[in-house]
Amino acid sequence: MRRLVFLGVFIAIAAAPAVLKADVGASAPTTNGAERYYRFGIDGQAGWSGQDGRAGQDGRDAEVTADGTWQVLQMSGTDGGNGGNAMPGGDAYGCTEPYQPDYDLEGAWGGRGGNGGDGGRGGSGGDLLVHFDDLAQLRSLQVFQGPGRGGDPGYANTGGNGCRCYIRNWSHTVCHDTTDEQGHTHHVCNTYNYYCQDGQDGGWGYQGSRGSDGVYGRILLVPGHDPVPAQKTTMDVSFGQIASGPFTLSRNRWFAKAGAHGLFAAGSDIRDDYQQFDRNIQGQYGIEWRAPRPIDAYVDQAVHLQMDGDFVIRASLPDGLWLENHEETVAGVPTLVVTQVVTEAEAKDLVFTGVAGSGTGFEILVTDRSGVSDLVKTAFRVKIGNQTLFWYPTR
After folding, report:
1. pLDDT tens, 194-224?
2. Per the omega criterion (within 30 degrees of 0), is the bond before 246 cis?
3. The pTM is what?
4. Measuring CA to CA, how many Å separate 65 from each of 129, 137, 261, 274?
């Protein structure tokens, strides 16, 4: 175990005050002298929302050979269904207004109108893969890959009516006798005014959204009659497997082109861009272990290899391991070389063990229990008051 020492550091710890929150109810006393508030009637129910439209079906994919034989390929997506219309909100009911009570009144509210249903998405056209010997043979193919249209939205609906007031204001006069300091009796009367407010009508619901349109299917052209080679663009290699390397990945190269409308039969409903197969590109990648620590403890940890769109193989290191590494070419093969390794748990296995001294001789003691501080560049963040310092210890 190693002990790391920090000199001349003062640490201040402040506790933040707790904040308590309480829910606040919707009701509140009136402001005209009365202490009570009353809603008469029963709120109307919210209207039913319309159902969402069904999604359109995607067109079928197809793989054909263009040999001059007339072929009609129906691969279009279907339209999405329309959203359903909403129902109106219900009127408030039981709207019997109490007769001039000694408190304010408000009528029950009408129910909110329902929301319109969303239109279903349109189906996308299917993908077409065509083998050919001569591009002129594509003129014998009439292809329909159009997208389905998104469904129309359903209509929202209106809200219901709230309860109405028949008597909108009234007053009560309350009298009582009171005796002043001289013993004289006075007859005192106070008048309190009360009000009734109509219940709110329910609001309109929200209009549904139109469904998204589908997209045209892809067109893939392959010279010749051989099947498109399988590709392997990713691979996970454990450290226990690296001796069997180098490892081979592959990706197919396609060239993006335009002008499909001029290649296929008149009347075809297709996109104008297409992709033409070129070849399958393979690449190799190796992994070597040159770290002083034995590899045995890490054989289950894996490096993720991926060939990107530029046909370059890149390595992603395993989580939980901190590796010192570089890439070099070994026997003509790009190779990941591991020169040092610690686990994340080892690197973070630090324990505060105390303080010593004072003033400029004040020390903070931290113990490196895994003994890897010579392998890891460690930085500590120390907060002093409201300032944060980064402290790089001398081991």
Report:
1. 999 999 999 999 999 999 999 999 999 999 9
2. yes
3. 0.69
4. 8, 9, 18, 16
